[in-house]
Write a structure and sequence with these properties.
187 residues
Length: 187
Amino acid sequence: MGLLLEHIELLEGEAEMATILSTMRKLGKDVDEVRQYLEKSTGKSLDDISDVELAKIAATGANAGQAQMNKDTTIDPADMKDYKQLQTALSIPGGSYIAAPKVRQKYPSGTYPTQSPDGKTIDIDVDISASDLDNIYSAVKSAGKTFPKALDDLKRGNIGAALGKVIDKIVAPSTAAPKKSQGNWNK
């Protein structure tokens, strides 16, 4: 456990990791699909998942995202156009009610298998709602205060670059001297 905390402290600043953890918790409370993923990945209720466990999930996801990005994958231009339209809709009041049916067309309600951080297959019941989209959009904007360059890439529709900037903050050493954690990682 101590080695994991040292690893996190060496690779990430307190503000960035706190943003990642608080965003994961907020999305877990506000978006059922995220809650399911976190709970099924840990075998615990959301309230019982520690910050260390969330950090481990974030680091595992970041490593998987980095590996996927290293495969020289390109984003389908149609997906990029859909994303930009979704972003535009979410930026206007009530836009999520217009966007949600379009997202459900692409990702119909149902059970989708995914991988937990430890590699086991877990099923997530998906039913995208307008409030899910509002909560995700709000979380992205809030996290963007800590990751402004990633938010700029996201606004331009460059999802891969945005994800890469956040991943770099999790898995690549920062150029700044590491800070000692004063947060409560076992909360």
